[in-house]
Structures are given as C-alpha cells and as structure tokens.
C-alpha cells in the first residue's frame, strides 16, 4: 500500500539514484507534517537536521551537521548519501574532490547530505504545486 501511495505522490523522487521506498516515504512524511516550516530549501534542510552549523575555533573554519530536526528524515538522507557514495560515480568524484580540498570524509558527507536535501526539496515542492494545480483545475 505504501509503495502505491509514494509512487503516486512522488514518482520523480523514486526515480532518483539511491532513493528507496522507505527513504522517500519518510521524506514525504516529514515535508507533509510540517508545511508551515517549508519556506525554502534551507528550512527543509534544518527540518531534516542536515543544515550546517558553524563549529569553528581559532584559525580553523569548519561546520558540523545540525543535531536538531527530524531524526528519521536525517536517517533517510544519510541512507541515500551512503547509497550514492557506493553506487554513483559522480558522488564518489564529489567526495574525492572535497577530501582533496582538505575536508574530512565526514565533512564531505555532510556537504553531500545538504545537497541531497536541496534536491529532494525541489522535487517535493514541484510535485506539491502540480497536485494543487490539478485539484484547482478539477
């Protein structure tokens, strides 16, 4: 039952690399439970707990992941990131490039999770607008 609902609500989300049924369902639940908080992709990232938080000291400038937000959504994005890191050559190149720039692998994954949140937010918002326009036209 969940598969048919998720596929109907967000087929483009399910078509993306390394986004499985459970991860897509969790991200849709997170977005649907908090429509008033979804004003931008940055707010969605904060809601999912993948927004960067400054963690600099002295001469070092770095960020860490936000520990707030929906932990289930953060877990879903983490699973997507690890899946892409294993399967997607573009993601592997991205992480290798970040590590070559001097970032740790964890910092590179943090950046990857933020990118995934940005991508997912765009898909969810586009699909929400399509559904609303279809309901208005009907």
Automatic annotation (TrEMBL):
Domain of life, per lineage: Bacteria
Domain Transposase IS116/IS110/IS902 C-terminal: residue ranges: 13-95
GO biological process, one term: DNA transposition
GO molecular-function terms, A-Z: DNA binding; transposase activity
Protein's name in the database: Transposase IS116/IS110/IS902 family protein
């Amino acid at each position: 039952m969940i598969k048919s609902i998720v596929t109907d609500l967000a087929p483009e989300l399910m078509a993306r690399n390394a986004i499985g049924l459970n991860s897509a369902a969790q991200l849709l639940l997170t977005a649907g439970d908090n429509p008033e908080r979804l004003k931008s992709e940055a707010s969605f990232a904060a809601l999912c707990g993948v927004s960067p938080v400054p963690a600099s000291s002295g001469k070092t400038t770095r960020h860490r992941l936000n520990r707030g937000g929906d932990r289930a959504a953060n877990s879903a994005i983490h699973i997507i990131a690890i899946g892409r890191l294993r399967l997607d050559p573009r993601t592997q190149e991205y992480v290798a490039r970040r590590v070559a720039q001097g970032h740790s692998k964890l910092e590179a994954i943090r950046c990857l999770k933020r990118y995934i949140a940005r991508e997912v937010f765009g898909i969810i918002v586009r699909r929400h607008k399509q559904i609303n326009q279809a309901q208005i036209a009907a």
